[in-house]
Specification:
The structure is a homodimer of 682-residue chains.
Chain A: H1 2-18, E1 41-42, H2 53-64, E2 70-74, E3 85-89, E4 94-98, H3 101-116, E5 125-127, E6 133-137, H4 158-161, H5 173-187, E7 192-194, H6 207-220, E8 226-231, H7 235-238, H8 250-266, E9 272-275, H9 292-303, E10 309-313, H10 324-332, E11 343-348, E12 372-377, H11 393-402, E13 410-414, H12 430-441, H13 447-458, H14 463-484, H15 516-520, E14 526-527, H16 544-551, H17 561-564, E15 567-568, H18 579-602, H19 610-642, H20 657-661, H21 675-681
Parallel strand pairs in A: 1-2, 2-4, 6-7, 6-13, 7-8, 8-9, 9-10, 10-11, 11-12, 12-13
Antiparallel strand pairs in A: 3-4, 3-5, 14-15
Chain lengths: 682, 682
């Protein structure tokens, strides 16, 4: 009898293996809990009219909660900030309370996450978000390409969304995807989404597109997710309705007010506008002799009656300035205090452009009378696209450790999401979406805690898996820095697509600040960008104590060294080694670490389903080859200046410099090269 | 005054640096000594009529010798074998004596080599060659392609050589090259050369070509180098003169006698014929129902009156036999004693075909009544062509350690020489030409001694260079075995060109024994070719004690293990590890060693001229990438059978199996892929 039972069990286990309920395509992200038979949640009658957000919370708990009954409560409670929640064990079960429906939903997701992570709740848990606005920026074009997107096409099916004859079919794949997108964001507290690229097409403001935006807004609303749009500053002209876009022109002001009114008629909780103006060819107020403040304020005035917000980007740099790193500060700092209260200046974390490592942008802290928000890049434009494993929480942690979270009004993350089954391309790229959401909720969270949360929910709670892979994740971004551009080097990427190395890049007629030699400045004497007081003086944009620290190579942190200094090849580093030797060792370490990641991952085979295991394995393989490519390209190129051997105890290049200089990947700025293409061209 | 002198010296040194007397293109091989002002050599009057060999010896010494005067003596001396020499320090200088002019020349070269190596002569030095015949086989086609040649085109300019109107111009580049070729061979004791491919064109026996052969023979003769030809067994038919090539046919026998007479009228010291018959599509006596012995003897009879030799190759394998490794033995061993005295059976060192490692061919020792000679492959058909550094003395040492040199009549080496400036493609490939000559002279020489000799003459005598690079050379062939086919694996090369890995190769309709799976036999149980008594029984072709040893996996040397055995993936090796793990570790070691070679070489920069340094550096770079290619291809492919992980402490693959299976290098059997082509296709 016992043996018969055993064989039945074995048989069932085999069937389970042969017939998995759901393909492991990563589509469930960190939300993988299947039906708990005894899940129950009750909504007090007073709250029932506040559907559907609360109903979603109840449904989620009913479907997956395996613990005591949960009571959901919406209550005025001054101790709870908007969207905050309290989870309280009671005699008969658990109560989740909040002052807002979204807060209840966030509490429900948190409770389910604790269950997934097998973390027991001891006593009350009260949380509230650090920022009211936790927003994703999609750089999605209306043709469904995604600038710097490496996970398929844009989620937004504009052809269908703009079809006035179409009706929303909740069971369609597209609709389900929209819901799943909103749900995933809600589960980590993200409450805003800018649907379209900051290089914005004016078409988004036409009636047809706004109708489509309304349809998305209606789907997202129950999940607490508001929609925003990037707008083209010259829209009144581009749409053929006016002959100017001058922000002080009455017709222009009227046009925008009317447009805002039109939008809010469709979408009463529309969030507002994100604007890239007078930057990289985009139109803006300066085209009409006006300031950024005058431009932003005009839009803010149009949105103000509806409580809408303008997020105005500070990502500007003119082709003439001697140091691009100074430009945003020079243009924006003098405007401090001139913006309307519903304008937030959106500043990239660093002064250049989402490099693997940058010091923080000195604008932070320099505009005390202006709300600022940080723009972080979740998509890995400069970090190996969807091919490299790079967990970005440590990078953002670095930022928040220097820029006090309380000094910011909000945070935005440039999304890495597309139509790929697993949403983000690399299975581990979803960890960055997750980490962005978690840090936008609580910027004091540690990287390790976030990695652990994500791993436990996404792959399982076995410590034999979580411990090594969490360690791998925590090391991953620094490894990328090491094999790409250590010691403060920056922007030595290949032209256009920014995938591989091209430190020698020279495009005749190109803006100098679009070319790597502008940034690394390698010459027979040394390497690095002199931003000291006797150089470009970018250091002086920082607070005096920090300026002092950065200005002196002896006190400047070595990971920023070549960002702030041009130093001789034989400059003595803290290790006692020369700058050249140290540079070589960083590249070598990056390569070795990447190989180590392959080893660590391969050993995880018993803990991971075959599909995701193979996917990560294949991408780590690409990453290991890419790391060697980076090392060889950079060291062989810089060696032509340094004229010194790579230390002989280090592994040697396997590529020739001439060969590497011929590599030109035929990809655009919305494509990640696959293994076949890399093998062909690299 | 002193400072002026110093600056003059500095100036002179700079000039020397800027204007080297001779580009370091490797063309001087190991013969690099420049004019010693006080070189002197005298020829006793009795010897003067024996020019020009003795004159060459005298000239060489006059040009480069920097020691005491040398007296060259031709004397009957029973203590000295033909071509042997004695170098004897005397009160007034040094005397070199020999029974033959060539012996004097060999002595002169040896004396100069000692000088180049900075080895002092203490007392008498007497040497004589182990074999009368020390011969190179050129697989040169008449269109100047070289089968398995990776160093440019064939040296022999047949267009010019067959031009009856042309006159020999001793100052022409071609003529100088012929002289340099003969001189290089003489300097290491090689005294025969087969000019054309064993896949022989009948055209070589036409009047025009024989005239060209005579011109080469005349140039080579003073250097003691005799010419031989490969002949096509069907020549009488192919040249349109007879309707059969049956060796027992009187007309055929007469045709060959007449052809031999014609050749000897032109070249009185012509060496003889090399024959590939009934092998890989070549015609032979079996086509007419005759045996190899009948075919060889017919040719031997034609040559005998002129004291010519037939070298008849035992490289045969039928498409039907169950084990190709047994074929040569099965066909030739029964013919023992049936060959004329002037026939030598030429047997490849191993039973298959010049693999990175083979056990010796069991024919050696199995034909006691027949003269045998060993055919070694100097050109690296199966060892990475001209891209990989593989010093082959250790491979040949392994052969001679199992096959007593005294049991052989002669040795032949398949040449790696072409029109490249440096003769052999890879700067270190010349070491294999050198090593072959030295071992043909003295098969008891150690690999380390040969490496040291070659390095000291070719690059210089600084121990800081010689010691590490000699070590590198000694390890190099085993490294290739490790990353290509360790533990007795063999012939898993890519189709046709044999450059890269293709263990999965399957060409519809191809002979099974031309396909790798025939050799590795990987399956779900294990890997290897069962040649035990219960398998193909190839072991029984070896002497009983050895057969016993090889038949038992417990006693079979592990480096031959998969040659003789098909063993389970989990078979316990001597290390205690499984077969699969051990296999993985060998591949890994090969990769790491190759990277180590790069490191060792790079550190040698101060000791090597820039041209040769860069050339070797670039080829080691290719080799390191190729090693990874091999490792990944073989392990990923075998893993589909073994279904076990590569041990997790080992570096992981960076290629995908599907990707690797698509690699098809577009090269022929006479081409070495260059770095650009490899990067494009691999």
């Amino acid at each position: 009898m016992r043996s018969m039972l055993r064989s039945l069990l074995t048989c069932a286990a085999s069937l389970l293996f042969l017939l998995p309920l759901k393909a492991e395509d990563g589509s469930r992200l960190w939300l993988r809990q299947e039906g708990g038979a005894n899940g129950s949640a009750t909504l007090p009658s007073a709250n029932r009219r506040l559907l559907p957000t609360l109903r979603i919370a109840a449904d989620e708990l009913r479907q997956a909660w395996r613990g005591a009954p949960v009571r959901l409560l919406l209550e005025k409670n001054d101790a709870l900030a908007p969207d905050g929640f309290r989870i309280r064990p009671t005699a008969s079960g658990v109560t989740i309370s909040s002052a807002t429906p979204a807060g209840v939903l966030y509490g429900a997701y948190r409770l389910l996450a604790l269950q997934a992570m097998e973390t027991s709740l001891t006593g009350e848990l009260t949380e509230s978000p650090a920022y009211d606005l936790r927003i994703l920026n999609h750089w999605d074009n209306l043709d469904r390409t995604v600038e710097r997107g490496y996970a398929g096409r844009s989620l937004w099916d504009w052809e269908e969304l703009t079809d006035s004859m179409a009706t929303d079919n909740p069971s369609s794949v597209t609709y389900q995807r929209y819901v799943a997108y909103a749900r995933a964001n809600a589960s980590i507290g993200i409450n805003g989404t800018v649907l379209n690229n900051v290089n914005a097409s004016p078409q988004i403001l036409t009636r047809a597109y706004l109708h489509g935006v309304k349809r998305l807004a209606d789907i997202f609303r129950p999940y607490g997710l508001r929609v925003y749009l990037s707008v083209n500053f010259a829209s009144p002209m581009a749409l053929g309705e006016l002959s100017t876009a001058d922000p002080l022109d009455e017709d222009v002001r009227h046009w925008w007010k009317a447009k805002a009114d039109e939008i809010y008629r469709l979408i009463p909780d529309f969030g507002g506008f994100l604007v890239k103006a007078n930057s990289e060819g985009q139109p803006g107020p300066c085209d009409f002799g006006r300031t950024h403040a005058e431009g932003a304020n005009m839009l803010a005035d149009a949105l103000a009656p509806h409580r809408g917000t303008v997020m105005w980007r500070a990502f500007v740099y003119s082709p003439t300035d001697a140091d691009r790193a100074k430009q945003a500060y020079l243009e924006f700092q003098p405007l401090d205090g001139q913006f309307r209260p519903n304008v937030i200046i959106q500043v990239k974390n660093g002064p250049i452009d989402f490099q693997p490592r940058e010091p923080y942008s000195p604008l932070f802290g320099a505009m005390p009378r202006t709300p600022l928000m940080a723009e972080l890049q979740v998509t890995q434009e400069y970090l190996g696209h969807a091919n490299h494993l790079a967990f970005l929480a440590p990078m953002w942690r670095e930022f928040f450790d220097l820029v006090p979270p309380a000094s910011l009004r909000a945070v935005a993350g440039v999304a890495n999401i597309g139509t790929d089954d697993n949403w983000c391309g690399h299975p581990f790229a979803a960890a960055n979406w997750y980490a962005f959401g978690r840090l936008a909720w609580n910027p004091a969270l540690g990287s390790e805690a976030i990695a652990n949360e994500w791993l436990r929910q996404t792959f399982g709670t076995d410590e034999a898996f979580v411990a090594p892979i969490s360690q791998l994740m925590l090391e991953s971004r620094e490894a990328v820095v090491d094999y790409m551009m250590p010691l403060g080097l920056h922007h030595i990427f290949a032209w256009g697509h920014h995938y591989g190395p091209e430190p020698w890049c020279d495009i005749p007629g190109a803006r100098p600040d679009w070319l790597p030699p502008y940034y690394h400045r390698a010459d027979s004497i040394g390497i690095g960008f002199d931003r000291t007081r006797t150089g470009s003086d970018a250091v002086s944009q920082y607070p005096p104590a920090l300026a002092e620290l950065y200005n002196d190579p002896a006190t400047c942190p070595e990971h920023y060294l070549l960002w702030f200094h041009h130093l001789p090849w034989n400059y003595a580093m803290k290790s006692g080694r020369t700058l050249w030797d140290e540079l070589c060792r960083h590249y070598d370490r990056g390569v070795r670490q990447t190989r180590g990641f392959q080893q660590t991952w391969d050993a995880m085979k018993p803990y991971v389903d075959p599909d995701r295991f193979a996917d990560v394995q294949a991408r780590l393989r690409i990453q290991a080859r890419d790391a060697t490519w980076w090392r060889d390209a950079c060291l062989l190129y810089f060696q032509t200046f340094a004229r010194q051997p790579i230390p002989y105890d280090l592994e040697r290049p396997i590529h020739g410099l001439d060969e590497l200089k011929q590599v030109q990947l035929p990809i655009g700025n919305h494509e990640c090269p696959d293994e076949e293409l890399l093998n062909k061209y690299r």
